[in-house]
Amino acid sequence: MDVTLLEATDDPERVICTAARNDYMGEFVGDQSFEETMASVDGDSLEEKQRTLIGHLLSHGHFGPFEHPQATFAIEGMSRSCMAQITRHRHVSFDVQSMRYVAFDEVDPEAVRAGEMVVVPPSATDPDWVGRNQRSGSVDEATIEKREEVFRESVSRSVEDYQRLLDLGMAPEDARFVLPIGTKVNVVMSMNARMLMHVADMRAAADAQWEIRELTERVLELAADWCPITFDYYEENMKGRKNRLAP
Ligand SMILES: Cc1cc2nc3c(=O)[nH]c(=O)nc-3n(C[C@H](O)[C@H](O)[C@H](O)COP(=O)(O)OP(=O)(O)OC[C@H]3O[C@@H](n4cnc5c(N)ncnc54)[C@H](O)[C@@H]3O)c2cc1C
């Protein structure tokens, strides 16, 4: 899976701080410079003042100002299973590659076996992989080889059948019914900084599945470059804790 930041609000922490200061000031923030708006906040530099205010907001559960900045991510090659999980978040906006209109032109069985069209979970190939809800710990080489063989043969068969149905003139929107849930899809998603932290609360947690955790960790890395004070604070003080952003 590949995740990139497509677009995001410029200077998001200025927006967060301006919105938050608006709540406690007699003056109108629209008529002031950012320096004037932040004048009474503790800190020797503007960056320190932003750090003080953002830390205060997050530690006191004042999350509203974090709804103003928005980021758009492009994700290449997530499974449809992962897509079903992430699209449950109702305050995130999505565009999903359509299999009604986008058919795989030519199915190359080797590409399918190599995991180019279907996500191969680590539990199909790694004998030491320990996942959630796994019945046992590490497995021997013979078992993992068998698992991988069954997995790859099964997805190859499904994708080849899909191609045969297309060749028989079936519409892609109906032929896709035979495809595995691990079939890769490209997605664009947008959310605000508050929602991003909520998604991370739920999807970077130990009980989430490996693929959506991987996606969330990548999104968090990009968010830390985009909105550094907020996501550094989140990483150090909130991630994995009980004080989640929403029940
Ligand atoms: C480990 C794990 C296992 C899961 N297993 C399952 C499963 O087996 N089956 C299943 O169906 N789902 C499952 N889910 C999905 C989960 O139940 C949520 O539907 C999903 O994570 C969306 O999160 P959310 O409920 O916080 O809502 P979001 O859509 O992310 O909304 C954010 C917050 O807004 C508020 N909110 C949004 N909409 C409403 C509303 N209509 N009414 C009141 N408050 C609202 C809530 O406070 C909510 O937390 C699982 C999630 C995880 C992380």
Kindly name the structural category. alpha+beta
Round the Cα radius of gyration to an integer and report it: 23 Å
Q: How many DSSP helices?
A: 10
Main beta sheet strand tally, sense and closure? 4 strands, antiparallel
- The count of β-strands is 4
Portion of residues in helices? 40-55%
Overall body shape: elongated
Order of helices and strands: EHHHEHEHHHEHHH
In what range is the share of β-strand residues?
5-15%
In terms of per-residue confidence, which ranges show pLDDT below 50 for 5 or more consecutive residues?
A: none
Q: In CATH terms, what is the architecture of the largest domain?
A: 2-Layer Sandwich
The overall number of domains is 2
And the CATH topology of the largest domain?
Answer: Gyrase A, domain 2
Walk across the major sheet and give the strand order.
Answer: 1-2-4-3
Description:
The structure is a single chain. This protein starts with a strand and ends in a 9-residue tail after the last helix. Helix 1 crosses helix 3 and helix 8 packs antiparallel against helix 9. The mean pLDDT is 92. The protein has 10 helices and 4 strands, in the order E-H-H-H-E-H-E-H-H-H-E-H-H-H. It is 45% helix and 12% strand. The chain is of the alpha+beta class. The chain has 2 domains: 2-72 and 189-238, Gyrase A, domain 2 (2-Layer Sandwich); 107-182, no CATH class. A 4-stranded antiparallel β-sheet has the order 1-2-4-3. The structure holds flavin-adenine dinucleotide.
